[in-house]
């Protein structure tokens, strides 16, 4: 429905930046790519490293204006609030969740613990898209502006699934070059990011909510159960939507001990898996199992696709789902 939204990254709130980067690299699924540009703190995509103009950040309606330090100050900026990980084609923006912090990601951390807090898109007109969602009752959690224009924001779209939506303007040359450089890293796999698995207590309300926002394409419901070759026994209602090119697979558990129910019990609604397509599932399965990563659920769908969920929840509280096309 939003064909002109270009996916940029997802945001993962964690308790320890060093731990998450070490864990994903140790099991061979993620590469630490730092932040954009040398000594960068949190630059605007496509802009020079040293911003010549002040930026105004409004959090929960309270503005704060900051002016970057002069280029000749001799100060080296070290960012320990954010870190980026390249996982296949996906950039994960890791954000430090501080138990005593006063930021919106700190609020997420206190309520949910580690997990995905937002998904970011580059859109042609952030102001327009923001206004459309505000008119539908969505609050602005944070807005970062420069010369009166949005350069990044967060919108409270987490009523079901606890996923905020973030907008940035179209990526510039610097940002695109950074992305291409990271994807070419020899340790980055050829996994293609598909979307996220999202646990919900009420599938119907979750789908209706995203319909009401007018940003999603909705696909027919599917029922997963033990008769569809799933192991262990699982019964859950699922329904997929796409926002831009990214799939949100909502799942409402019905019977049995399920990975979806475990998410709801442990942290409430939210993202429980990062989903990728792969060329050879058996090869990837062997590689991950060799590194000690267990398969918690696998099966074959009616369309012939085969899939497996891998238990990578020890750090970051997320599983990895790999899918191989049956066509």
Architecture blueprint of SSEs:
Blueprint: E1 6-14, H1 17-26, E2 31-34, E3 55-59, E4 62-66, E5 82-87, E6 90-96, H2 104-112, E7 115-122, H3 126-135, E8 140-146, E9 149-155, E10 164-168, H4 173-183, E11 192-199, H5 203-213, E12 217-218, E13 222-224, E14 235-243, E15 246-255, H6 259-267, E16 270-277, H7 281-290, E17 295-300, E18 306-310, E19 319-324
Parallel strand pairs: 1-6, 7-10, 11-15, 16-19
Antiparallel strand pairs: 1-7, 2-5, 3-4, 3-8, 5-6, 8-9, 9-10, 11-16, 12-14, 13-14, 14-15, 17-18, 18-19
Q: Overview of this structure, please?
A:
This protein has 327 residues and is α+β, with helices and mostly antiparallel strands. The protein has 2 domains: 178 residues, 2,3-Dihydroxybiphenyl 1,2-Dioxygenase, domain 1, CATH 3.10.180.10; 133 residues, 2,3-Dihydroxybiphenyl 1,2-Dioxygenase, domain 1 (Roll). About 9% of the residues have low confidence.
């Amino acid at each position: 429905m939003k064909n002109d939204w270009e996916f940029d990254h997802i945001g993962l709130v964690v308790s320890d930046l060093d731990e998450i980067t070490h864990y994903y690299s140790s099991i061979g699924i993620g590469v630490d790519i730092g932040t954009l540009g040398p000594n960068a703190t949190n630059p605007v995509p496509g802009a020079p490293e040293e911003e010549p103009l002040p930026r105004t950040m409004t959090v929960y309606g309270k503005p704060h204006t900051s002016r970057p330090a002069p280029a000749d100050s001799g100060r080296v900026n070290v960012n320990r609030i954010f870190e980026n990980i390249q996982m296949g084609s996906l950039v994960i923006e890791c954000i430090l969740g501080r138990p005593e912090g006063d930021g919106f990601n700190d609020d997420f951390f206190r309520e949910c613990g580690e997990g995905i807090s937002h998904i970011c898109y580059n859109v042609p007109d952030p102001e327009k898209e923001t206004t459309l969602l505000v008119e539908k009752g969505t609050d602005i959690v944070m807005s970062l502006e420069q010369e009166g224009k949005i350069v990044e924001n967060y919108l409270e779209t987490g009523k079901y699934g606890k996923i905020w939506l973030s907008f940035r303007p179209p990526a510039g040359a610097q940002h695109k070059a950074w992305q291409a450089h990271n994807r070419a890293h020899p340790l980055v796999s050829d996994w293609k990011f598909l979307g996220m698995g999202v646990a919900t207590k009420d599938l119907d309300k979750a789908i209706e909510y995203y319909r009401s926002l007018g940003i999603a394409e909705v696909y027919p419901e599917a029922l997963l159960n033990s008769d569809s070759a799933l192991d262990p026994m699982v019964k859950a209602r699922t329904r997929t939507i796409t926002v831009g090119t990214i799939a949100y697979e909502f799942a409402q558990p019905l019977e049995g001990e399920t990975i979806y129910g475990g998410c709801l019990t442990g942290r409430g609604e939210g993202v429980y898996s990062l989903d990728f397509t792969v060329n050879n599932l058996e090869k990837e399965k062997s590689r991950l199992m060799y590194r000690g990563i267990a398969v918690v659920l696998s099966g074959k769908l009616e369309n012939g696709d085969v899939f497996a969920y891998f238990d990578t929840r020890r750090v970051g509280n997320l599983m990895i789902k790999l899918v191989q096309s049956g066509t």
